[in-house]
Amino acid sequence: MKKTLLYKLFRIGSIPRKVAPILQDEGIVVYDEGIGGCFKTKNVKAPVKRYIHRSEWFSGCLVVTMKRIICYTFWKRQINISVNDHRISELFVDAPNEQTLIISFESSVFRDGWQGVIEYRFKTQKALQFQDVLTSKGVQQGSAAGKSSS
């Protein structure tokens, strides 16, 4: 899968320099950077915000170490959860094809006063590898949207 243009030109979507040595010390299991993706919300209500459907494209990175799952979009940390955190079982992962990975969750699990589903779609050749590693760490297969509608 091609890297994003922002990554090729400006390294936007790379693992931040300050974080890279820490992640290496934790033992990187699988990672990809410079990957394109889309952040989506579904019926998200927060104390000062409300999004029925919001989509935002990004260039980012996703890293799974022996100790955590971490995701940055445009150098902003979006996901950072320890594999020992009980809430890891509230994350959902799906790979609808070999080059698409979806991580979704109910926002209320991670933020007080929030509700609604947040979803990150990544375009990566490592989608199936990420899915296998994440499920081995305790992440559920499927979609948080499917769970919340049940």
Describe the structure.
The mean pLDDT is 95. The protein is built from four helices and eight strands, in the order H-H-E-E-E-E-E-E-E-H-E-H. The chain has a single domain, classed as PH-domain like. The protein has an eight-stranded mixed sheet. By secondary structure, it is an alpha+beta fold. It has helices at 5-10, 20-26, 127-136, 144-148, and strands at residues 28-45, 50-65, 68-73, 76-82, 91-97, 100-106, 115-123, 140-141. The longest helix has 10 residues, at 127-136. The radius of gyration is 15 Å and the shape is globular. Helix content is 19%, strand content 48%.
Strand pairing plus helix content: what structural class? alpha+beta
Strand order of the largest sheet: 4-3-2-1-7-6-5-8
| Gyration radius over CA | 15 Å
Q: Spell out the helices and strands N to C.
A: HHEEEEEEEHEH
User: What is the subunit arrangement here?
Assistant: single chain
CATH architecture group name: Roll
User: For the terminal residues, how far apart are their CA atoms?
Assistant: 34 Å
Helical run tally: 4
Please state the average pLDDT score: 95
Shape assignment: globular
Low-confidence stretches: none
The biggest beta sheet, please? 8 strands, mixed
CATH class reads Mainly Beta
SSE layout and pairings?
Elements: H1 5-10, H2 20-26, E1 28-45, E2 50-65, E3 68-73, E4 76-82, E5 91-97, E6 100-106, E7 115-123, H3 127-136, E8 140-141, H4 144-148
Parallel strand pairs: 5-8
Antiparallel strand pairs: 1-2, 1-7, 2-3, 3-4, 5-6, 6-7
